Structures are given as C-alpha cells and as structure tokens.
Amino acid sequence: MTITFNVTKVFAGPGDGFNQCGMGCYTQSDGSYLFGWGAVSTSAPYPITSLWYRSVDDGNTWTSTGGAEGPVGPSSAFACNLHANIICAPSYNFTGPAIGVYRSTNNAASWTNVLSIASAATPNGRAPSCYSLAAYNRTKAIAAGQFDGNKNNPAHQTAVSTDSGASWTPQVGPDTSHADNYGESLGVAPNGHLWLGYAKRNGPLFDPHTASSINGGNTWSLNGGLPKPGGGTGGFTTAITALDENNIVICGGGGHSPPASLAWLWWSSDAGTTFNLVPSSDIAGWPSGAFYTYLWEVKRLTRDAVILAIDRQRGTPACPWNLSLDMGHTFPIQAVPTVGNFPNYGIPVGQIVTTRTGALLLPLWESATYATASICIWRGTITC
Predict the structure, then answer these.
(1) Which run of H or E residues covers position 198?
(2) Which of 82, 232, 248, 273 is deepest in the core (most CB within 10 A)?
(3) Do 323 and 384 touch, CB atoms closer than 8 A?
(4) Half-sphere exposure (Cβ direction) of 342: Cα atoms closer than 13 Å
(5) Are 209 and 200 contacting, i.e. CB atoms less than 8 angstroms apart?
(6) Can you say how many angstroms the Cα of residue 25 is from the centroid of all Cα atoms in its chain?
(7) Which residues of the chain have pLDDT under 70?
(8) pTM for the whole thing?
(9) Cβ atoms of residues 289 and 259 within 8 Å
(10) How many CA atoms are closer than 13 Å to the CA of 205, on its beta-carbon side?
(11) Torsions phi, psi of 198, nearest 5?
(12) How far is CA 241 from the centre of its chain?
C-alpha cells in the first residue's frame, strides 16, 4: 500500500518581523476553524497585537474575525478550545510585566482577561509564564507554566479551570523539588488523563521529565526523567500527544544554543513507566546532523497515526511534516511544502488541527530573508 501525503498553502498572512508568534488552529463546535497569531512591537512600550481568522469551509478559505488585538504567547504557548466555541489563550507581557490567560466566547472577536499574575518585586521577582494550555472535557481546562512571581516559593506549574475557562486557580505543580522547575507542555489522552512535560532543575541545567494525572491535575504521579542521547546535558519538552492511556509520544530537545541544540523524540507503550528514544534514522528526511533542528508539535491523528512538525533551520526545505503509522515509533512518511519558491526558513508555530473531512491544517512561519516573515496555513491530505 502506498501512502501519499500532500500539502497546499491555503492562507498567507501579511508580512511582519521576526517577533511573530503563532497560536495555531482550533476546531469550533459550530463546524468552523480559528487560526491566530500575534506580534510584539520592537518599539517601547512593546505593545502586543494579534490577528485571528476563521474558516467555515473545512479550512480552504479564511476571513478576519474582526478582532484587532488579543492575547499572544511565546511560540510554545497554544490556546485551547472548550465546549460552545470558547477559546482561551495565554498572554505574554500583555499590558506590562505580567502574564495572564484570556478568554473569548465569540470566535476571537473580543477577549476577557480571566487570569493575571504579575512579577514579584525584585530582588525576589520572577517573570511568570504560561507555556501550554489544554482542555480535557467540555468544561475543564489546565494551564502549565510559572504562576508564582516569587523566587522564594515553590514553583507553581499548573492552573485549573472547571467553568469553561471563566476563572482559574493556580496550583502547586507536581514536582516542588526546586523553585525553578517549570512546566512546558501538556497532553490529554482520550480518556481524559493528563500528561505534563516539565524541565527539572539539575544544577545549572534542566533535564526533561514527565508527570501524569488521572484526576484533572488535582494530584500527579512523577514518571522520572527522559533518556538523552549519550547522556546529554540539559533538556526540555516541547509537545506531548497521548494515543490512549498507555501510548504516549513526546518531543523535545537538548538546549537552545550550540552545540546543544538537538532534537529528541520519545515514545512509551506502558503509560510512562519506560520511554524509548526514537533515533533520527527512523525519521524520513532527517537533516545531516541535528544542529538547530527542533520538534515543535506532535499530534495523534487516529488510533495508530501520529504527525510530527519539524523545524529545520539548516536550510531548505525548511519545515517538513512526518507521519507515523505505528504509534510514533517511526516516522517514515514525509510531506514537504513545494509550491513555488519555498522560503529559506520555516518554523511550525502552533497547534495542528484535523478537520471533519480528515484534512490537516498546518500552521507555519515562513521567511525568505529571516528579517520579514509571514504566518501561513498549509492544508494537508492523506491518500492510500
């Protein structure tokens, strides 16, 4: 059987600078899809603006929602969609030295601040952050990040909402062994079990760890550290997907600066008791060497199929998407944008969505010069 994975660009936003941050694509209960991104001004006081677009034809065409300003977070902070077209998104320094969570109930046309946490005063001040959001049933959602601005306190790694995102309660995270441990990525299994990837302080560095919860984040089980190639130094997680309560796929990396900027991928088939490192030889089209290569998104498509978004900053083609048909153990099928003269740089910038017809909506930050960029959507189809 031959599997074909094709992608076509269906949306290109206005050109902007390098500071753009993607929020991703989101399914709405009315059958539409939302797509948002934002940009931080390079001039003081560095205002944040974001643009949101909506599709009512399975992601083929997009129109503005009319909302000219809204929340935006770092590239790893995604919004989450709850029942009845409610979407929540984190802000990054939205109105000053603070972060928060914002909520929209009208397809991103307007936003309400539902959680705001400011940095503590120096010398004990710590910049709060929100790294990931996830909804795990019709009314409940969880956020991961730093929700305590005081460095002297244990790290607050989660905040929970039980009323469709209208209010949020920060909670002490699953691992308080160090005040600088911080949560980075959240995944939700089909049975509602939660997975948290977090960076655990290890001397001057951080190591990738995971925790899981079967009760909506009220209590957590620590699953230990993730294996690193050759022992590695430092590390973090970037995204998690859970195919069921036992099979989990996690992507991450070994640092943000050379020579440690390496991409890592793990899978577990025993609910996180053990994790296996996926070798780059099992991922089609892996660049020669892993320098400046990141894995930003991994998503369950079916019971056995997983899609992986790769940020290849070594050159063109800049961003391929790879498919796995064996629960994330190998990724042999690749799709690369080939329409026209593809830019020299491409970075996945947000959540991937599967439409009701089975198409994929794939957000991508594209730039031919690395000075100006455009946030785009590619629509993928898989045929057998």
Answers:
(1) strand 194-202
(2) 248
(3) no
(4) 19
(5) yes
(6) 11
(7) 1, 14-22, 39-49, 67-78, 84, 91-99, 122, 230-233, 255-261, 288-292, 313-318, 338-345, 368-372
(8) 0.87
(9) no
(10) 14
(11) -140, 160
(12) 11
Structural tokens at position 288: 């020669």
| Three-class secondary structure of residue 282 per DSSP | helix
Q: The tokens of 202 are what?
A: 């290890």
Quickly tell me which residue has 């195919």 as its tokens: 243
Q: Integer distance in angstroms from the first to the last C-alpha of the chain?
A: 7
Angstrom distance (rounded) from CA 315 to CA 317: 6
Find how far residue 295's CA is from the centre of its chain.
10
**Contacts of 197 by beta carbon, 8 Å cutoff, 6+ apart:** 183, 184, 185, 186, 187, 208, 209, 210, 236, 237, 238, 239, 240, 250, 252
DSSP notation for 285-335: T--SS-TTEEEEEEEE-SSS-EEEEEEETTSSS---EEEESSTTS-B-EEE
